[in-house]
Amino acid sequence: MTIESIIRDIVREEVSRLPPNRLSAHDPLELLTIGAVAALLSTSPDYVYDRVADGELAAVSLSGTRRKMRIRRSDLEAFIRTRL
To answer: 35 in a domain, yes or no?
Structure first.
């Protein structure tokens, strides 16, 4: 069991106590690949990597390489909100 799975379980338990109208349609801790983020933004993976390198978009590195980089859905949503 990883720390991430423990945190997910705690968050899910807390969220389950919220009224139904307060629930999000997506898991905010969901980790997205760079390709998935690029597809959601209708852009290229290079654009996503550039935003991460510039510090505009937070990323999690699972092994210290670009290939294992992931973006939390909540970080992507925050990034999008800053662009509106």
So the answer is: yes
